[in-house]
User: Fold Argininosuccinate lyase from Acidovorax soli.
Amino acid sequence: MSNSQANSAPSAPSHNQLDTKAQAWSALFSEPMSDLVKRYTSSVFFDKRLWQADIAGSLAHAEMLAAQGIISASDHADIQRGMAQITSEIESGGFEWKLDLEDVHLNIEARLTQLVGDAGKRLHTGRSRNDQVATDVRLWLRSEIDLIADLLKELQVSLVDVAEQNVEVILPGFTHLQVAQPVSFGHHMLAYVEMFARDAERMADVRRRVNVLPLGSAALAGTTYPLDRERVARSLGMDGVCQNSLDAVSDRDFAIEFTAAASLCMVHVSRLSEELIIWMSQNFGFIRIADRFTTGSSIMPQKKNPDVPELARGKTGRVVGHLMGLITLMKGQPLAYNKDNQEDKEPLFDTVDTLKDTLRIFAEMVGGQLNPATGQKEGGITVNAPAMEQAALKGYATATDLADYLVKKGLPFRDAHETVAHAVKAAVSHQVDLSELPLAVLQGFHPQIEKDVFDALSLRGSLNARNTLGGTAPAQVRAQLARHRARLG
Ligand code: ARG
Assistant:
């Protein structure tokens, strides 16, 4: 039945198979879609990556339809057989994806009907692409979140490994990128572990809201068939069913939330990237990263550029951009489903791809790669402890310790602060560290300064003194290491 005949006499119902997209909705249409519109509206070339979720959702739906007596057992068996065949066709690369069939859902359904006939046409009973696509995206995202959770764990383990080897290594801690106080490099690494641990928690939290079933909401209002939605949810391993059909088919807040969590995680990666870049610059020389994560310059033979951290910093902008795209996509959309939502996929897919690649590469770049021969990880970042310590000796990192020393002798903190400022000024003019000023000179700033001041002024003394919970004293860092090891298993 060709569409062009629709304007003339009323026509008999078509029994054609679903070969083109127009046939998915009916003979109501009086002209075919132009090629440009077909291309503009179709999503198959990106949403085909939902195929496994689409088939899983369809199988769960068909199983329930059969259990409820809505389709026969033999239709159900045909659908299962057809889907098994489609699965192997897609896996082997033999499946022919057709632009004409718009999206992954229509492509698979059309092929099913080609393979098993009427049973294929019965699959869509009590279902719409609106609840179908919402279900597919949720199923797909759920499994991606699980992979991301593993990668976040790997990255944390890498950071904990580096932290453990560097508890006693001292570098200057910065505020405003000015030398502030000495900190343990292990402590510094564990700051990132805290960030990525929160990212993992956020992902787990998002997963709870992703893992809820829209199927059974049909186009927008529910359906007239006696569906058992709880049964479908159980068979798909979902934690519950969406309780309002209009909301279920239309909101993409779960994708937005995920992208927000991914953006924050990338922001954390970008902070680490920035530090790695600074630390490996010649002026710092604190660390080296393995050559395989750097590139040379085509003109300057001496260069080794930190391309991977730089790209990660750049890709953070890309993911934050996807968040802006998705949240703007949702803004002002009336209930219920609108085609705008088809635009959720590319930003979501790219967010997942970018985040996964970034986490994988960072876990290896920081912690190294397992050498199966030795059972050890190799090729992670190399720490130049003397360079770090040397830098901490510049910049009066222990000035606060001198103030604290005076407070312990009874001075009010503000007065001690002022006294030390004078001492630092003198040290600056002599171009020496505070610890290099003779005792007599120090005593000129305050008579209560005694020989034991030099313990307070040493980097190690300063570090050990910050022994409050969460502080940088090695004892505290070791306690945190143990906590993270236990948590990460
Ligand atoms: N490809 C569509 C999407 O991604 C599937 C849902 C289409 N529904 C519709 N009523 N046109 O959102």
